[in-house]
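REVIEWER CHECKLIST
Item 1: Sequence provided? yes
Item 2: Single chain? yes
Item 3: Sequence as submitted:
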Amino acid sequence: MTEALNPFDGDLLRRILAGDEAAFTLLYRRHSGGIYRFALHMSGNSGTAEEVTQEVFMALIREPQRYDPDKGSLPGFLYGIARHHLLRGFERERRFVPLADEYGNGTLPAGATSRRVVRADSFDSLVRMENIERVRQAVLTLPESYREVVVLCDLQEMSYVEAAAALGCAVGTVRSRLHRGRALLLEKFRSVPEAQAPPARAGRTQRASGR
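Item 4: Structure as written out by the authors:
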């Protein structure tokens, strides 16, 4: 059975507990990039990402004993702290408009649960169809429960097990939310040309009737 804490992280954490500042610096360099990217993809704001990253590692240096290796990996523990800070910030600010406002409490529109959603139910499909920056911006519109699994599994390339540990939920919950989040993203992109199509057809009809 693989230990939740790998030897390198374990050694650094023991040194941190003993007051070794250099060990903290090494651990920060090892994991801060991932935490920052997670916070950035979740918030869409570099200032927020920097603040969350700082809060995560301040929490670690203040109380390293809070981490319990029996409950999961150290990265999962750090992502969990980051998630807590982000969700608390979202509650305060509510800066993002979730897809629930467009699709009725996060559900797909009538007829949207078609085979085309199932066929292209992957982040790679979205990237092929859309500019990656547009995809990232669209991820920001997802309800938070879907956004975090898409960020962790598709943007951060975490396994379902790692994401479940970071979010404190079951692997099956991660799978379910990821499927729904991807479906919402796919439907969002596919609805754009369909919404734009009627005016174009109307214009052609008007020109035809004018001849």
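Item 5: Key structural point noted by reviewer: Confidence is low (pLDDT under 50) at residues 95-121, 194-211.
Item 6: Recommendation: ____
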